[in-house]
Structure formats: structure tokens, C-alpha cells
Amino acid sequence: MRSWLVLKHFDIPFEEVMIRRTVGFLREHPCAFAVGKGALPRDRCRRRRVGIGRDHGALAELFPQHAMWPRDAAARAHARSISAEMHAGFADLREQMSMNIQRQAFGLELTAGALANVKRIDLIWRNCLDAHGGPFLFGKEFGIADAMFAPVIMRFNSYAPKLSETALAYAARVTALPEVPEWIEGARNER
């Protein structure tokens, strides 16, 4: 979802290949497709996940005319930091609140770890919105940092954990971007 949203939002041409993800397929094809000049080498694809074969940083480097990361160095460093935290962290939330666009599980009782993850994400969003004036995490424009949190927003839409008003409003803004309903519709039609 993350890379797809960035590519769509910045109107960057790409080829989308729909692949039914199965365990057998992932064992045979750990890097299924790529954007740009070829797929990543096999040794860079050990996680056995299907996805775009370029990380977000490289994507921003390939298209510097788009402000995918904040232009200000300090804001860019902060955006990369919270994006890395999102990418590598929040294990309890991922474990308990799986991303399934077709699922609605309002009122799920969260573990202490998942609750702490929700609170941390809420704090990140509030701090960024306060520091940069919104409506997105680093100002007026949607960027990679927002895309990094889009799957969490989908989880929050499915599970409805308690969030601050600021976090709820931010999640609603991202959900309302034209690309997000398109992605949701595609996910719902996946069979």
C-alpha cells in the first residue's frame, strides 16, 4: 500500500501486477516486481515479501522534482526517523490488529503492548501535526511519512482503537485522499 500510494499520489507511472500471495509463491519469488530499472538482487530480497523492489528513499531520489520527503533537512530527518520506527516497530499492534481491509472488529480488547503502540502512534501524529501545521504530518503536502502510516490507518479504521481527536482527524484526512478509496476498492475486489 505504501509505495502504491506514493506512486499514485505523485502521478509516477508504474506497472501494477496483481499476484495472489501464497506461501509457495513467496518461497519461489521473494521479489516479485520492481519499479525502475530492474528488480533488486536476490540477496536483498530475503524477507520473502512481495512488493516494490525499491525502498522509499530510492524512489524519492529517482523523482527529486516531487517533495516526497520534507525539503527542510531537520524535518526530513524527523520524517525518516518516524518512518523507520513505523517500518521496524509496533510489533504488538501488527500482531493483534492484522491488516485486513474487509474486516471490522470494533471494540477488540487490546493487549497492553498493542495499547502502548496505539498511544505512541497517536503521539507521533500529534507532535508532527503540531510542529508542522498539518494537514499532513510534515505540512500541507502528503509525503512518504504519511504513506508509511497508511496501513496503520487502515487498521485503525477496522479496529477503532481510542485515539485523540487530532489523530482521528488526521486518519480521516488520509483515508479521504483520492488514492486511498481506490486502493481500498482494489483490495476488496481481490479474490
Helix count, DSSP H or I runs of 4 or more residues: 9
Number of strands: 0
What structural class do the secondary elements suggest? Answer: mainly alpha
Largest sheet: none
**CA-based shape:** globular
Show unreliable segments: 29-54
User: Can you write the helix and strand succession as a string?
Assistant: HHHHHHHHH
What's the helical proportion of residues? 40-55%
CATH topology of the largest domain: Glutathione S-transferase Yfyf (Class Pi), Chain A, domain 2
What distance lies between the first and last C-alpha atoms, to the nearest angstrom?
17 Å
Q: What is the CATH-assigned architecture of the largest domain?
A: Up-down Bundle
CATH class of the largest domain: Mainly Alpha
How many separate domains? 2
Radius of gyration in whole Å, from Cα? Answer: 17 Å
Mean pLDDT: 83
**Quaternary structure annotation:** single chain
What amount of the residues lies in strands? under 5%
How would you sum up this structure, described in words?
This protein is mainly α and 191 residues long. The chain folds into 2 domains: 2-62, no CATH class; 73-189, Glutathione S-transferase Yfyf (Class Pi), Chain A, domain 2, CATH 1.20.1050.10. Helices cover 54% and strands 0% of the residues. It contains 9 helices and no strands. It has helices at 2-9, 23-28, 56-62, 73-88, 91-96, 112-132, 144-159, 165-176, 179-189. α1 (2-9) crosses α7 (144-159) and α4 packs across α7 (144-159). The longest helix has 21 residues, at 112-132. The two termini are 17 Å apart. The model is unreliable at 29-54 (pLDDT under 50).
